[in-house]
């Protein structure tokens, strides 16, 4: 589904953030991207979201070379992908319900569909009773659940999450992981950059590790690092 072929990104200041990346991600996969701060995780995600283009190499999504997508077609490409960020990025003046509905309105859906789908997704993330709340009336974990609801409302093929548990305590992080795992079980690929050692070791999913912009490890069911495997 997703393929990076010899992808290198050199920023304007001549810093090489990722180098010669070769990576294949299949439909429905669950993938953790790990690595120290500055290793290139967010750069990889930005490349995939087509926020930036590589300096060299090709990235394909369902055989489409995304590095060649025209600016006006980027939004259409991103409809395949739901994103979740560490800082939630909800719209502060909209309620929980409206935040999720807004994502549907952006891509066309009629009012009837919206009235049917939004409550279903809010129920899936356990927020039916908070539909009328505003983001600043919610805990961090609840805000992240709204962000997940918003990311999945249009049934994307892939979810990309950049440090989704980065601001949350361990218990709340586990709740978020439960929801992401459930979404993955329903067939959506989940690509998640994280520093959370405990989560990675617990879930035993595919792990790629970046170091100074290079993939130094790609394991089908890895832990946080080679010396930290589950016994
Ligand atoms: N726009 C930019 N211009 C120049 N250098 C950049 C830019 N964005 C990132 N970098 C550099 O590229 C390297 C990789 O950054 P990136 O944000 O991908 O790392 P990361 O692994 O996501 O780190 P973190 O875990 O801290 O978020 C860093 O050294 C960073 O300083």
UniProtKB/TrEMBL annotation:
Membrane topology: Peripheral membrane protein
GO biological process: cell division
Ranges annotated as spanning the membrane: none
Quaternary structure, from the entry: Homodimer. Forms a membrane-associated complex with FtsX.
Single GO MF annotation: ATP hydrolysis activity
Residues in ABC transporter domain copies: 2-231
Subcellular localization: Cell membrane
Keyword list, A-Z: ATP-binding, Cell cycle, Cell division, Cell membrane, Membrane, Nucleotide-binding
Chief site of localization: membrane
Source domain of life: Bacteria
GO cellular component: plasma membrane
Protein name, UniProt field: Cell division ATP-binding protein FtsE
InterPro entries (UniProt xref): AAA+_ATPase (IPR003593), ABC_transporter-like_ATP-bd (IPR003439), ABC_transporter-like_CS (IPR017871), ABC_transpr_LolD-like (IPR015854), Cell_div_FtsE (IPR005286), P-loop_NTPase (IPR027417)
SUPFAM superfamilies per UniProt: P-loop containing nucleoside triphosphate hydrolases
């Amino acid at each position: 589904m997703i393929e990076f072929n010899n992808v290198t990104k050199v920023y304007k200041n001549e810093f090489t953030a990722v180098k010669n990346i070769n990576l294949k991600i299949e439909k429905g996969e669950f993938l953790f991207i790990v690595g120290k701060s500055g290793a290139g995780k967010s750069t990889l995600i930005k490349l995939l979201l087509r926020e930036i283009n590589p300096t060299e190499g090709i990235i394909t999504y369902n055989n489409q070379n995304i590095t060649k997508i025209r600016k006006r077609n980027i939004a259409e490409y991103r409809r395949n992908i739901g994103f979740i960020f560490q800082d939630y990025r909800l719209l502060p003046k909209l309620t929980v319900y409206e935040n999720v509905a807004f994502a549907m309105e952006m891509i066309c859906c009629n009012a009837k569909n919206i009235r049917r789908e939004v409550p279903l997704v809010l129920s899936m993330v356990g927020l039916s009773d908070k539909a009328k709340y505003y983001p600043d009336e919610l805990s961090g974990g609840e805000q992240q659940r709204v962000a997940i609801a918003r990311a999945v409302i249009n049934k994307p093929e892939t979810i990309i999450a950049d440090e989704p548990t980065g601001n949350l305590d361990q218990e709340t992080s586990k709740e978020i992981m439960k929801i992401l795992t459930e979404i993955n079980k329903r067939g959506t690929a989940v690509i998640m950059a994280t520093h959370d050692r405990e989560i990675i070791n617990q879930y035993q999913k595919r792990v790629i590790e970046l170091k100074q912009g290079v993939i130094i490890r790609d394991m089908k069911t890895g832990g946080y690092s080679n010396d930290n495997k589950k016994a």
